[in-house]
Design brief:
The complex is a heterodimer of chains A (about 750) and B (about 180). With about 750 residues, chain A is α/β, with parallel strands linked by helices. Chain A is built from 26 helices and 29 strands. In chain A, helix 5 links the parallel strand 6 and strand 7. Chain B is built from six helices and ten strands, in the order βαββαββαββααβαββ. Chain B has a single domain, classed as Alpha-Beta Plaits (2-Layer Sandwich), CATH 3.30.70. By secondary structure, chain B is an alpha+beta fold. Classes of the chains: A alpha/beta (about 750), B alpha+beta (about 180). The interface between A and B is large, with 56 and 43 residues.
Chain lengths: ~750, ~180
């Protein structure tokens, strides 16, 4: 039904591979907001509560606007346990999301003239008509279930609910399969509960924090970064395990420079030492855990001497750090980390971390893991949801017992032309997510997109995916919109409000409005008994004894705890597992045929001439979504490829030299990246931050719309990811088995010459 | 009154929050900054040392910038804060040349600009924007003439260093190890 046989990526032809380094744009449009004007004091400015959307930590803060209704700054809310009044650089620079002159400004619809595809600016009504017509056509031909929603952030739920009201529950978010599903599964299998966000780690009371590839300071999980800083003040111990001398490693008491992919060997060796040296919490283990004897027998072969040969960490250091941890117990945290989809046995690695926490007795203990509490916000009453004939569950839960959310890549597979199963996807909605950077297998995604009858993208920026959409809807930024109340789990239950500080710029609209308008046009009036989202939120807040007007004053409201934060001494406690105990041996895994105790398995090594590709973070960026933010781009506008001096010698590399990367499948990066020769990375790996190498550049009514400050800057690791290992328990996509070789000459130019 | 800053390099993660907070607080145009991050790495894998320094004008006691200013636009304000009166600045650049820390820049509006220790905030009893935003609490601002101020106590207690002491400028930004 699509009038396009092939969905061209709407761009200026030839530029995607040219690899031209663009000068950062010092746009005059941006300059206008910073004039040398007389400074207003804070009490001359208006404060509106907000919740930061620059990352998932969702700090609460205040947007300051001047008497002309111009956003001046965003500052943390003192009462907010996520930020304690201090936003991270991304939050402080969050106002750049609003001011970015490259934002999507009008609804866009794909048109073709003289064989050339382009976008045309249309009214919201026209755009909705196109979307509704396509949705109905797909429904008629394949069923509503055949439209899949990919979503992220606080915009996601508006669309997820709308689609569920309509009759499709086919959805997934990269924040799950590409991020923390494996970690949640590991904890659910062990303790009967996941960790959620923010993780209930009692860093403020701990004496020993263990970070496994967890790079605090480069990731800015704000509250935890602050707590770790206070741990440094208290002279607490930090043990960091990382192949890279990360910022966290630099601030650690012990850094264990591990060979990549061998973390599980170290965890099992630590467990071996703690058990064999009788350093575990005997009372806790006897009272709360199941399967200790089996665990003890299981880890006998995992000696530190064995682990030394696997991890390259000296056995002596393994003994020493195990004893340091035990010495601090129960005030010790093996931090669960966040993005844990690494090697394809990630649920098992997380299990090993969870088990270590259990034998050290840190779960439910002061200085270990506390029991978080949140407050339940009732849902606005609406008719029961229609029951779809199938959903994401049917696609993934048969394959992975612990896939408790949709698996992005498996839904994408159902959208491929060769797919002949019962769960065919013929429409794709991308809401506030850019799968071409967030999900591995770029080529598969592009192939799936070509096979769709209809593709919708909702975003604030012209990210790569917008170039593949049939309709693009411009969403308002978080500073201009209302979203769901932030209900967070912390030491005390609390709620926080995001309220628009200014009207949406251009012709952008809040996500709730877009989803509701679509819903109304699809005949879902019964599900939308409210006109303004503010009514909906106010009703919800009144059910828990507060209101929009109160939250507009305070931003964050705390409630009293009703349950204890820690286990009481000798308390009998029922864990939500089959045995009611902390399962060192997982009875579910036994039944389902997964390893009931974590077993070390060697992972792929780099082929000769290749290096392992390690990607990570920069503290001032949240992946691709902040790269064009004028304020944050100003802090860092291009990535560097970290290369060990030994490797630099082999390739004759110099600092700041531009290189391209190629993976063993022959895939070459679209753009070059500059080299940084540094001792901070091992000789067998290279490192670069994730999210760069932006390719988003679209043509609207003959004019170019692009992320001008981000376009073509550096390499997107997502392009090069290969050898993706699927975590059997969850379907999580292990993305750290990718290898690259360094090309010093422009491979794209060479291709043209030959 | 002698304002100074103490920055704990054992806590700083180099996130540049201080930089962007200063830019929004002080309307610093995109592409310019009054403060910046320096990463210092030494050693060989796996024996490496790394720290970050949040740098800015050192509000020196001995100020080559003020000395070289031909119009008196550069001056030392209350509490030793080194400032520039924008209206009196002719943009000759002598102060930029003379500063050993490269702490000054040409503002596109035609004058020289630099860190003011956020004196507009300090007057209101607040910390400078960079100090108040820092997620690692690694920055401290206060009065060195007050022996009971946090910064005086910190400097007494902790080993510290200043940048380019050999320049003889007596910097007032101290880095705590």
């Amino acid at each position: 039904m699509s009038k396009f046989n092939r969905r061209d990526f709407i761009k200026i032809s030839g530029t995607a591979t040219a690899g031209v380094a663009l000068t950062p744009a010092l746009s005059s449009g941006i300059g206008q907001i910073f004039q040398n004007e007389k400074k207003l004091t804070d009490d001359q400015l208006t404060k509106t509560p907000t919740i930061c959307e620059v990352c998932f930590w969702n700090c609460a803060g205040w947007t300051y606007t001047d008497p002309d209704n111009k956003i001046i700054k965003v500052v943390g809310n003192d009462k907010d346990p996520h930020s304690n009044g201090r936003l991270c650089p991304r939050g402080t620079g969050g106002l750049g999301m609003y001011y970015d002159e490259n934002r999507l400004k009008k609804p866009l619809v794909r048109v073709e003239e003289n064989g050339v595809q382009s976008f045309k600016e249309v009214s919201w009504d026209e755009a909705f008509d196109v979307i509704v017509d396509n949705m109905k056509a797909i429904d008629e031909k394949y069923g509503k279930e055949s439209i899949a929603l990919f979503y992220h952030g606080k915009t996601g739920p508006h669309f997820k609910h709308m689609m569920q009201y309509w009759g499709s529950d086919t959805n997934a978010k990269p924040a799950s399969a590409q991020c923390l599903i494996t970690r949640e599964a590991g904890y659910i299998a062990t303790y009967g509960t996941g960790l959620a966000s923010p993780e209930p780690t009692d860093i403020n009371n701990t004496e020993c924090l263990v970070l496994i590839g967890n790079h605090f300071g480069e990731n800015m999980h704000n509250g935890h970064v602050q707590e770790i800083s206070k741990l440094i003040d208290r002279k607490g111990t930090i043990i960091t395990v990382d192949p890279r001398f990360s910022t966290a490693a630099a601030h650690s008491t012990h850094w264990l420079p591990i060979k990549p992919s061998t973390d599980l060997a170290l965890l099992l060796a630590w467990t071996n030492v703690i058990i064999n040296e009788n350093l575990y919490d005997k009372e806790y283990v006897a009272r709360y855990t199941y399967g200790f004897d089996e665990l003890k027998a299981h880890v006998q072969k995992y000696t530190p001497e064995w682990a030394q040969t696997v991890t390259t960490i000296p056995a002596g250091d393994i003994y020493k750090t195990a004893r340091v941890m035990a010495n601090a117990a129960p005030k010790v945290i093996i931090h669960p980390g966040r993005h844990t989809a690494w090697y394809g046995d990630d649920t098992q690695r997380t299990r090993a971390m969870a088990i270590l926490n259990a034998i050290l007795g840190s779960w439910g203990r002061k200085g270990g893991f506390y029991f978080p509490e949140n407050i339940k916000l009732p849902n606005h009453p609406h008719p029961p949801l229609p029951k779809p004939k199938w959903s994401w569950r049917d696609i993934s839960q048969g394959k992975h017992k612990l896939a408790f959310a949709g698996i992005t890549n498996e839904i994408v597979d159902c959208a491929l032309p060769e797919y002949d199963g019962p769960y065919k996807i013929k429409g794709m909605f991308f809401v506030a997510t850019n799968p071409l950077q967030a999900i591995p297998k770029e080529d598969t995604i592009k192939k799936a997109i070509q096979n769709q009858d209809f593709v919708l993208a909702v975003d604030t920026m012209p990210s790569e995916i917008t170039g593949y959409a049939d309709v693009v809807l411009p969403e308002a930024t978080f500073l201009e919109r209302l979203d769901d109340i932030r209900v967070s789990q912390n030491k005390s239950p609390n709620v926080a409000l995001r309220y628009p500080a200014v009207k949406p710029k251009y012709d952008s609209k809040p996500g709730w409005w877009i989803a509701r308008e679509l819903g109304i046009r699809l005949g879902l009036h019964d599900y939308y008994h409210w006109e303004e989202f503010e009514e909906y939120l106010d009703w919800q807040l009144k059910q828990i004894g507060t209101s929009i007007s109160e939250l507009k004053e305070v931003g964050v409201k705390h409630f009293d705890r009703k349950t204890p934060m820690y286990l009481n001494e000798n308390e009998e406690y029922w864990f939500n597992t089959n045995t009611g105990k902390i399962e060192l041996v997982s009875t579910d895994f036994q039944e389902w045929g997964y390893d009931p105790l974590p077993v070390y398995k060697a992972h792929d090594e780099a082929p000769a001439g290749y290096l392992r590709l390690i990607y990570g973070r920069l503290p001032m960026h949240t992946f691709g979504r902040t790269l064009n933010n004028p304020n944050l781009n100003d802090l860092k506008n291009e990535p560097k490829l970290w290369v060990n001096p030994k490797v630099a010698k082999i390739y004759y590399l110099e600092n700041n030299q531009e290189v391209w990367l190629q993976n063993p499948e022959g895939k070459v990066s679209s753009f070059p990246i500059k080299v940084r020769i540094t001792e901070r990375i091992r000789h067998d790996s290279v490192f670069m931050p994730h999210g760069f190498g932006n390719k988003g550049r679209i043509k609207v009514d003959g004019k170019i719309l692009e992320m001008s400050r981000a376009y073509g800057r550096g390499i997107s690791d997502a392009e090069l990811l290969h050898n993706i290992k699927i975590d059997p328990e969850t379907g999580g996509t292990g993305m750290r088995n990718s290898f690259v070789t360094i090309l010093t000459e422009n491979p794209h130019t060479k291709a043209v010459e030959s | 009154m002698r304002y100074a800053m103490a920055i704990e390099v054992n806590k700083c993660v180099g996130c540049a929050d201080c930089v962007v907070a200063c830019q929004t607080e002080n309307n610093v145009p995109i592409g310019y900054s009054r403060d910046w991050i320096v990463e210092r790495v030494s050693g060989t894998y796996p024996d490496i040392f790394l720290h970050f320094e949040s740098q800015r004008c050192n509000h020196c006691e001995d100020t080559p910038c003020v000395r070289t200013c031909p119009t008196g636009a550069s001056f030392i304000d209350v509490g030793g804060i080194v400032k520039v009166t924008h209206d009196e600045c002719i943009g000759c650049g002598a102060c930029i040349e003379s500063c050993p820390y490269d702490a000054r820049y040409f503002h596109p509006d035609g004058y020289v600009d630099k860190c003011t220790f956020c004196d507009h905030r300090v007057k209101e009893g607040m910390d400078p924007a960079c100090v108040s935003v820092c997620p690692t609490y690694c920055m401290h601002f206060g009065d060195l003439d007050d022996p009971d101020s946090d910064i005086s106590k910190l400097l007494k207690k902790r080993e510290n260093f200043t940048l380019l002491p050999e320049a003889g400028t007596a910097p007032q930004i101290f880095y705590l190890k």
